[in-house]
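Record type: monomer structure entry
Structure origin: computed from sequence
Chain ID: A
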Amino acid sequence: MPDPLLDIRGIDAFYGDFQALFGVSLRVNAGEVVAIIGANGAGKSTLLKTIAGLMHPSSGDIIFDGASLGAMPAFAVVKRGIALVPEGRRLFPSLSVEENLLIGAESRRKGPWTLPRIYDLFPILAERRHVPATSLSGGQQQMAAIGRALMSNPRVLLCDEISLGLAPIIVKDIYAQLPSIAGEGLSVVIVEQDIAQALKAARQVYCLQEGRVALQGDARELTRERISAAYFGV
């Protein structure tokens, strides 16, 4: 087996005195889609924030492309090639759609993702490129947040709850673009509460339960009973 592109090795993470992650390990291969599922408070968003450099593990290590990220700050992690699509989208309200997208290119990493490529992926953003980002619908804002992250030309794209609060038809449209995104050679890690959507999109699935990995395996082989048991801790 080749070495994974992203190798999370037994990390613990805290908010003050509260421990949110307990010895979490996870592997992501190049060009692979990995889903992280679990109930609210399971530690999914904390895990993505820690990978992205917004938090730092108190123990364990994060190995990316063969090197430890250590306590690297978030801006340096982006320059290394990991980009986060945060929960809630976090677009800049004072900027236009296109200006939000261009912010993603500040890392100046070379790669296939340019404004024309983003507009090909999400044509509605091209139509509305000059309007304030907050005037977009929820689904369009999610597309803009994904586009902004892709503009940094990452090797790993972290997506935190991209279906949250969106209509099912919009979620389906966004997930329909994942093969095109992964087809560029990116690895994609998605945090998702919608188990059915996660199983369709991903090759590997990890289920977190109270900050621990309760289940890991091939999405095509995990049974509904095993997933339910790990998800609910029963």
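Annotation 1: The radius of gyration is 17 Å.
Annotation 2: The mean pLDDT is 91.
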